Amino acid sequence: MIGEVGEVPSLPEVQPFADNWSYLKAELAWLDRVLMRSLSKQRQTNQEVERVARNPADRSTSHWWKGFIALDPSKGGSIPPQNPPAQHPLGRYGNRIEVSRYQNIRLAIPTLCDRLELGHFERDLLVLCLAPEISRRYDRLYSFLNNDETNCKQPTVDLALRLFCRSDAEWRTARETFVATSPLIKRKILQLYVPNYSTARSLLSQAMLLSPKAVTYLLSEDVPIETIVAKPRTKK
After folding, report:
1. How many domains in the chain?
2. Has residue 116 been placed in a domain?
């Protein structure tokens, strides 16, 4: 484990989170920035579809042909940075999380990530799926960003991969998060389902939903982690 209680971090200028809610608000502020960038990009794509489409049939099938036609050759896919900035082992707010732990301030998502040894993508999934439990504005955002015929208000696997993966390699690695043996799926913290009215059966088309117990734990200040993750058995 990283940053055990009792280990004094040498970061006197870093302020801890006041409580779990303050931490969640910081994560939602980050998520808002990610979603707004994706929203702007999708609106631009929709405008380009309208510019290219010549009839209603073109518009209704744009989800198919826009993946094969370069709408604007001058705007090719971005290349991920060769040397991305190093991340703190505890995530984007790692220093503040570390100081919070030292002061016995319980933060649910970091605690769960530590217990299950989850990676950065899995942490981001928890934030993405928890957001609609905090504000219904995310229902509307996800419905638009999913960009399919179901108007699904929950984030889909495809949306998560598009939001959080910067390269093909990251996409392939992140996809393993949704296999049956992965920690979040195996412990039924994260559930996958096919949205109503969808005829698609691919993994990408499936929506994601946190279990009620997981939501209660992640939003609370004092619900023990054992409500969703059993204590590891001690060896005799």
Report:
1. 1
2. yes
The answer to whether residue 197 is domain-embedded is: yes
Burial of 58 (0-12, 13-18, 19+ CB in 10 A): middle
50 Cα distance to chain centroid: 30
Question: DSSP E strands: which ranges in 82-230?
Answer: 190-193, 207-210
Could you give the CA distance from residue 128 to residue 40 in angstroms, rounded to a whole number?
Answer: 18
**14 token code pair:** 């870093």
The pLDDT profile of the chain, 236 residues, written as one tens digit per residue, is: 454 555 555 555 889 999 999 999 999 999 999 999 998 887 766 655 555 655 555 555 555 444 444 434 344 444 445 555 566 676 788 899 999 999 999 999 999 999 999 999 999 999 999 999 999 999 999 999 998 878 899 999 999 999 999 999 999 999 999 999 999 999 999 999 998 877 878 999 999 999 999 999 999 989 999 999 987 666 55
d(CA 31, CA 205): 21
Tokens found for residue 117: 């040894």
Residue 28: give the domain boundaries.
Answer: 20-65+92-227
* 0.85 exceeded by pTM: no
**How far apart are the C-alpha atoms of 108 and 91, rounded to whole Å?**
14
Q: Is residue 70 part of a domain?
A: no
Q: Is 72 inside a domain boundary? A: no
The encoded tokens of residue 223 equal 């619900």
Rounded Cα distance between 39 and 148, Å, is 14
Ramachandran sector of residue 55 (left: φ over 0; alpha: ψ -120 to 50; beta: rest): beta
